[in-house]
Amino acid sequence: MTLPASNKIQTxxxxxxxxxxxEWLQKRGVTLQDIAQLVLEIQLKYVPHLTIEExxxxxxxxxxxxxxxxxxxxxxxxxxxxxxxRITEPLLGMLRRDDGLYGIxxxxxxxxxxxxxxxxxxxxxxxxxxxxxxxGTVNDxxxxxxxxxxxxxxAAIAAAAAARIAHRARDMEAQNLA
Amino acid sequence: MTLPASNKIQTxxxxxxxxxxxEWLQKRGVTLQDIAQLVLEIQLKYVPHLTIEExxxxxxxxxxxxxxxxxxxxxxxxxxxxxxxRITEPLLGMLRRDDGLYGIxxxxxxxxxxxxxxxxxxxxxxxxxxxxxxxGTVNDxxxxxxxxxxxxxxAAIAAAAAARIAHRARDMEAQNLA
Amino acid sequence: MTLPASNKIQTxxxxxxxxxxxEWLQKRGVTLQDIAQLVLEIQLKYVPHLTIEExxxxxxxxxxxxxxxxxxxxxxxxxxxxxxxRITEPLLGMLRRDDGLYGIxxxxxxxxxxxxxxxxxxxxxxxxxxxxxxxGTVNDxxxxxxxxxxxxxxAAIAAAAAARIAHRARDMEAQNLA
Amino acid sequence: MTLPASNKIQTxxxxxxxxxxxEWLQKRGVTLQDIAQLVLEIQLKYVPHLTIEExxxxxxxxxxxxxxxxxxxxxxxxxxxxxxxRITEPLLGMLRRDDGLYGIxxxxxxxxxxxxxxxxxxxxxxxxxxxxxxxGTVNDxxxxxxxxxxxxxxAAIAAAAAARIAHRARDMEAQNLA
Lengths: 178, 178, 178, 178
What we know:
The structure is a homotetramer. By secondary structure, the first copy, chain A, is an all-alpha fold. In chain A, 66% of the residues lie in helices and 0% in strands. In chain A, helix 9 packs antiparallel against helix 10. Chain A starts with 7 loop residues before the first helix and ends with a helix. At the A-B interface, helix 10 of A face helix 10 of B.
């Protein structure tokens, strides 16, 4: 890419990109509620009174970020194109079998996690390994569907939303003391 | 690290971390104005009416981020401790001569650049290579001072502030059209 | 992805992945010789007797790495699919106009640069900004071709190959002294 | 850093850097055997006949990499200097309490994991979360010792060594079929 020149025509749709992102996730079987549930499970022990509504709001805010939207569009396009057989070999096979040496799914996920700093990294890895909640469901559908990117992207959004809550919990404590 | 437990005592100072960050940069010879000047030079061609005030505000906002503050504290501590000879070999020599195979300075810088997504990466690399403005000054002082982290950190803050402006310029165009 | 289980059938083609990678690059107008030329230009001042043959060998070695192959396959597939209009909006438009806020091309490039550590980061950013040699050619073809990923990937391979030479130059000096 | 100029005097010690790295880890209570044990536990299900000797060799090879050595030297220096109270506030407190919003330890760890590509990311996060083996021991010593960087670095070395085994297992299968 090149840093943006002014171009009004191209940017008219920016406002709606977030809603398109949410639609793409739903089309692949994942709702914001599903992701918020993951956030609640990993973050509840650190923020005792955390509610599902706060988690949902945090997921919503993560999806405001262009870097996150871009990763979702790119990863889910690759999953879908692979499912339809519209990608050339050898990449097609790697995506279809979620090849163990194909790590671009983690690379995209990392670009999501990094949005709130590196503190989300551990939660991302954990979610991706234990296949909690919706991540397990998505993973179980592999074989008939191609979800090579989807599971990592969902884990990354949850980890970023948890990191955002951690940052805000700390900031609020500081304000209460000030 | 471990995601934060509630601990009021430890967080009282959070509010002031940004100002301490600015002080640390000044102590090593870099003002926000210096960094804003870099932002203006690299971003002016993309955002024609950009002012130094807007650049300064963007740098200021970048410094609100804990990840950025942490990278500044860690990098400048290492520079200073190396200058005072308080670090053990072989690390001391690597830091003092800005060893060509020591890349942890770039690693910390990247954690700053990533805050506004990967679009700042190119500007970071460019600034770091051509040693524009204050980066050149800081670099020239190497030898008598240890600035192994400082030059990369300054380039990274400028690149992140430029990326933030790029994101906002695009968002505003979208709103004007809506 | 999931770390690899043993699966003989799926791995028979691994040996040839490097040659497929080279073919894909050539199909998009980039030869190893073009990339080696970039390496020579950026690295000659640090390693005075460096030859184009050594640069070519270093590029060749970079392409042995699965992470690099994966990034090439993924990025060039996206460029080609966008060129053919086979990608859904809004991603299609972002790829076609090399959108300023689309940073996934840099994200993939970074996964290549990181293979030899972070010391290649500065060279990557510089190459990507000044559009040296083949990168400029590839960039000029934007408009009729979609090269959103190609230019960043070429810059990243050159930066990684330069970092590899830097590591080896240092190692050899150490051996000569031992 | 700046890419390396030829400088014989500075590089004489390069050969021994790996052994210094091993010493530093041991001084902080971690042996290569401890790390190899982690590798065996996470990788055994994917590579059924894996032995502790192979894991040990893989850890040893990871420690050949300068990027890994640099991360170890930098992280363990910061742990030790914080333990001795030789770091200025507010960084000192962050390191001593392993502050939840301090993520530079993960940033350094990531630079280790990336050496064998992104496939190690999930294992890193998992190890760091469940505190397996020596990581749990190191973590339990927090309070009297400062191990803010040590636990992440150990998890990262184990994850990288596991990724290296995954890459090699796949390569060998391919050769057997050729």
